[in-house]
Records
---
Amino acid sequence: MFSRRSQFGSEVNAYTAALDEQRRRGTHLIDLTHSNPTRAGFDASLYSFQSFDPNASAFRVYEPVAQGLATTRDAIADYYARYHGVRINPDALLLASGTSEAYRVLFDLLCDPGDRLLAPSPGYPLLDLLAQASGAEIEHYRLTYSHQEGWRIDLAELAERITAHTRGIVLITPGNPTGHMLNAKELQFLNQLCHKHALALIVDEVFVDYVRPGRPGPPHDVYANDVLTFVLNGLSKGAGLPQLKLSWILTSGPEVLAQEAAHRTAFLMDSMLSVSSFAQLVAPEVLERSEVFRQPLLQRIAHNLEQLHRDLPDARFQALESDGGWYQVLRVPEVLAGEDGAIRCLREQGVIVLPGYFFDFEEDNFIVISLLTPSADFAEGLARIVRLADPSS
Ligand SMILES: Cc1ncc(COP(=O)(O)O)c(C=O)c1O
């Protein structure tokens, strides 16, 4: 009776079962995976929404605009000019209710059933589900890591994965969980591939406000690119307000193609009109105040990173270099590797970490932790996993 698109695996993996068991028992757990900013102890009360007036005609009279309100799009363009030094065209923006919805709209725009999109591995696991729900498929290209260069796209391997069914390439920059940042050389190569094979680029930059100090941001060409390109971002990470459900798609590329894409995405959005007027009306205030919100969050990331580099015993652990984002990848000793390692952390030390296989790491000996974890928990959780790996303890 039901579609294949809606058939998602319902098996509970051993790690999730172990976590549920600990929670049922009421065990006090140290959660090193906090990545919901509304649960990580940051004060969002600075968003007072005082700019919102329920009697203003823009709220009293519902005006469905598929692309999103012009005042909101202007405020997003101001945010790019102010915080990222980029001039973007507000008319090239389309608002959506969350980045996940933006992905769905783009997958619907680009893919017929069975078509494919290339996405990074290790990478953000939700993409596979979003693609499946659109009837599309994700094929993973490889990110490689070296101490000298950090994370880089294996460009030759990516090129080999392109087939007649490939419709686009997804980039997450900074990456989740790697923190990989797209550089100009990679963009140039990908642009050539897109030209040659008529592909689109989808650039997810939801973590762009969390670039590590001294590291470059994404190449500015992505905001006005030569090939059809969609940049995705929103208030979920940059302003720490996932519950406001406001994100955007910035479209660029050859004029005729970009216009056709914008027209079609607006049509797809028009069938849902999912973005609330309230979110659109308060967005200018939120964007303006978001910098104040980010300060303690950036400080916590810096503090946790300092702690990590001070306390992690180099011989057995390695904190992988990252250009930005909220996550930290750790190479760990055998005892902590894979699902079994994550379960031991949980049962023997009461610490929650994410096993690397959740993100499709090729090898077993990686775990992922969140740098948003409150610092006292971060220090204690880290000490406990180091203890578990110490053969003399
Ligand atoms: C890389 C990446 N993209 C998109 C999202 C979803 O963002 P939104 O809350 O705007 O749907 C997340 C959420 O964790 C993410 O990590």
---
Amino acid sequence: MTLPMVALDGLERDRPEWRPWLAVVREVVREAESARWDAAVPARIAPQAPGVPLLAGAPLSLPVEPVRQWADRLLRFGSRAGTPAMKSLDAVSRSGTEALELFNASLCQDAQRVREVATTAGVDVEALQALAALLPVPFLLAFGRRAAASRSESWIEGYCSTCGAWPAFVEVRGIERSRYCRCGRCGGEWHATALSCPYCATRDHEALVAFVPERSGAPGTIDACTRCGGYVKTFTRLQGCLPAAVLLEDLASVDLDVAALDQGYRRPSGSGYSWEVARA
Ligand SMILES: [Zn+2]
Ligand SMILES: [Zn+2]
């Protein structure tokens, strides 16, 4: 069994009430382990331009049929996840064109477009947004593997240098305590600028606060910014986690998110970088 699958088993034990949703996440991890998404990634990825995520500059020609099949499977698993909101997802169209549209909207984190698809289909908007966020993950992980060599070492933005997402959390690694942001979509990593907010880039030390939630039970701290109201979870560890495990560690540390939300902080929604899919 792979490490992400072991982590999923652990989550199922610790959070039995999450099982219906974890079954959906398990499908994503399983799909991400299939080699077919590697074929959908451009063979060559151009070197990184300053400030532009690698995915935003890459011409993509996503194969319709695998996307349609995968969207269909994910929607089926999602609609079985128990709640009436998730059940409503049965009504989302399974056509290739619409699956690709949903996939592309989610790839760019275009929440407005996903909302429109949900409204047209008459399904619960939040349920579709939660599921759609997982749809491109197997492709994004494959893209992240190939993009690793093209990533700029001098990236200074707060968003993912590979796919443009905001960080899922920060890892403070090893004895040198290097700080890396991690992406919960493509599994990517990039240097986190110390003493700077990843969202609004302020370096005003009076605006940057760190706290350890009292009753979270989760290892980790919260770095927050009183200027923009954003926060990021921070974990100290020897090595970075596997790309496919970022999503799971983000889920497993939800107690920290709850504590940050209680304090009035939030994670920004949408992408850190606005872009549209360029057809190859
Ligand atoms: Zn990313
Ligand atoms: Zn900020």
---
Amino acid sequence: LNIQLSTSNIEPIDILQKFKSSFAGGRIGHAYLIVGDPRGAAARLAENILQLLFCSDTSARPCGKCSHCLRTAKHIHPDAIWIEPIKKSRGILVEQIEEVQRYAFQTTFEGGWKAIVLLSADRMNIEASNKLLKTLEEPPPRTIFLLLSDQPEALLPTVVSRCQRVALPDFVAESGDALQSEVLDIAVGMGSGETEDKLRKACALIDLLKKIREQVKTASGEWLIQAESYGEAGEDIEEIIEGRIEAEYRERRKRVLRLLLLWQRDLMLCASGLAESSLFFRSAAGTIHAQAAGLTKIQAMNNISIIENMYACLNQHLPETSVIERAFMQFTCPPCLPMRRLSSGCRREAGEGGT
Ligand SMILES: [Zn+2]
């Protein structure tokens, strides 16, 4: 599931520290996707990474004071190019990526690293994304690409797969958004009660995923209009958009499962007697304590495996409805609550909901 359970405690300063040691060890990657506010925290991190590469003070990189550091902070360093959507409605155009390509293959002014920063990289259209992908596949030496995005699910998966992902804490914590509260409604009490209670929870998740798929489809209408306005017509376009719908839906489904997993992880921490401060959903500590009462660490870990397994099954295109129902029936509840033996006959027929 590619979830780093400890990420909720990572601060931007720690992330920069990691970049420092990668840089010192000559292990810096050539492309990073920085998930965060492209006008806020993500941009600050990008500036710091660039300062690390360009700073002339070898003893205290980045010093923040030398001309390289100062020019980097102002986005006027000659060896860094900052690209952003031209207009609110138009996104990042293929012409801008062509500029990036020309730039990437030029020699540097200062003889060192060259950097390309894409602010709101998710705003690239398909043509621009594919063009960038070619450069990411065969990157020029000593060139770093930083893609900044607060909507990484809107990026082409092929582009994402070329980048190392760095999530800023705001975007890991994702506090209080609508989706999170809907997922938590499902998470609270998940695994307890009788068969019908478990099935009710499973249905709630299935319904939530259906709703998400509809939302993605609705949003895709806009992609089509956008694509047509770029003259990206042709038979491929519908297929490409179908692919984007699926990719975006899967990204959002992953987020839902990740939140469920983080909830179970909190239950496990609670069952292991760990401090409240280590919880991901600290604001729901009371509810977590109540739900974890009587739950053993082994049971909690088992529930985590069930979610991981559910995610793996969904990625193998097994029918969503039956995968989710089966998983929910397997959740272990504390021994104080009656746990009914479940026969496979409890499973409803799958099929609707599809993939
Ligand atoms: Zn400096």
---
Amino acid sequence: LRFEVSILEKLSLFLDDKRVKHSLKVALVAKKLAKIYGIDEEKAYSAGLLHDIAKTQNLESLAEKKIKINSELKKIYQEYPQIWHAFVGPLIIKKEFKVNDKNILNAVKWHTTGKAKMTTLEKILFVADYIEPGREFKDIKIIQKIAYTNINLAVYILASKTVMHLLEKGQKIHGSIINCRNYYINVLGKKNIYDTTNKLFKSNFN
Ligand SMILES: [Fe+2]
Ligand SMILES: [Fe+2]
């Protein structure tokens, strides 16, 4: 599996400079996490490079590429325009990059919402997208540390933060992120969740 060079060369055909840089940073973080959690580093790197590939696409640009989308994807396009790129990404990756690795495709698909019972690569990409060094938000330093020691806890924290952010902005919340958060609450257990919530989210509830 040595996709990286050809992926990198093609990336700028789909993404502007800023997004290419973001994708590179996510790829590097994903690779580091892959090493720590014992999965294929090159796959993680490739998934990072490709994760936002559909970010500038729309229904017309897909039609031009002869990529057909089903009614489920059309519905997501209308209901959740910000996260649609994750669900449509795998179609572009298969067609334009000839990458058919299920693990990579699924990691891209779930990188915005997460879901219950993710594979290690799915968790890594979900987390890497939030914690790449260009990101700035409250408690990011702590969350970066947690990502390298307890990936499930990082998933829980980031899913919770996303839900809170969407609530604050009055936006719809995709069911998968709720399922994701619930699932990792069960995985982590009450004590872990209680301690983390007290430490990181207290101000949000006071
Ligand atoms: Fe994304
Ligand atoms: Fe991203």
